[in-house]
Fold:
Amino acid sequence: MSWRTRILMHSFAPLIKNRTAKFLYFPSSQPFSQREKGKTQSYFFHPRPLGEGLAQRGVRGERSSYTALSRRRIRVFPSLPEKVFLSMCAILFFALQPSCNAGVKPTTILTLSDGTRVLYETPPKELAHLSKKFVQAWLELNVCAIRAYYGRFPLREFRLVLKADAGSEEIGYGQAMPGEMPRITMYVGTRANAEEFRSSWVLCHEMTHTAFPSLEREYRWLEEGMATYVEPIARAMTGIISVESVWLDFLKKTPEAFENISTGLNGERDFKRVYWGGAVYFLLADIEIRRATKNKYSLQTALRAIMEQQGTMNNDADVLKVLRCGDKAISVPGSAKLTVLETLYKQFGTSAYKPNLEKLWQDIGIERTGETVRFRDDAPLAGIRKGICSRASTSCNDNFIRATKEKYGKRKKNRLSV
Structure:
């Protein structure tokens, strides 16, 4: 009898009525010579001690009294309908096993410089030109930005899945999913070149999600707003993109998030409201935290505390507990407790709050001139604006450029060249 058949019998044994001739449970401490002769002498289950005396026969609900997968066997004598039932289960078990295995793609373990393990799933043939070394350099680029903002990468390991976007030159979409093995899925254009990989925001955005606990669906704007705000700042801090591009995006995209609003952001599904309305919430929180603490603390301080104390995206959390955890981290000892995150949440989440964006841009000293921005260092909050995107000591961008100059990949016709 194979081990698969033993497992099947073990699984379906409770479904078979306990007849006297079917199961014999013997105390494991009893010598074999003292067991009843003429009965079953081959055991599937190795029983644990059940006390003194001879065999216990047909005891209902005694599954905890034996240990499975012993070399000893118990012979089972099912009725004809039970034989048919077990046979059908065995057929289904063996029939479905190949199809289940066929859906599992082979993976390669990529170990990043900080020790993070990435289970890189073999990509489709349309992306075969992306070598493992190039993919690792791309991962290092974005993990470097996350580390610069959070102090460390939130996950010890995750699975990376690349999907081909035929004919596209962009990295258009991504998704981060929690689980026992968190997964990041990226939709990559088959014609995307190295510059697109370097400048794309999508992978860093999805990695940012991993540093924030999972909230109820109603508060999706907090999760997406956090990632929309932190991702460009983390990349600007490490030289991947320019500081000007960060503020240009805010000037261009935030006004549409507050047009014709009648409700708060809780339960909102509109893309612009969820992403950029949420981003404005975190921008205002960052400014207020820096102003109240004279640049001693920032939103970065609060988000690091939330990650360490409330967990990553693998942890479900209550929205108020998350925000109060952040507020506690930014409260200066000996001063009044700050409630910046919770107070702004009540404004943005539950009411149709519309911030004065024009005044905000004037206060931090940014002006739009066409497709560029101009900074005014004499503005009241210019120092706070500078602190938000202050450069980190690490330059992640330079490492990626050096890696791509080695021309990773098979197709070298302007696909992976910088």
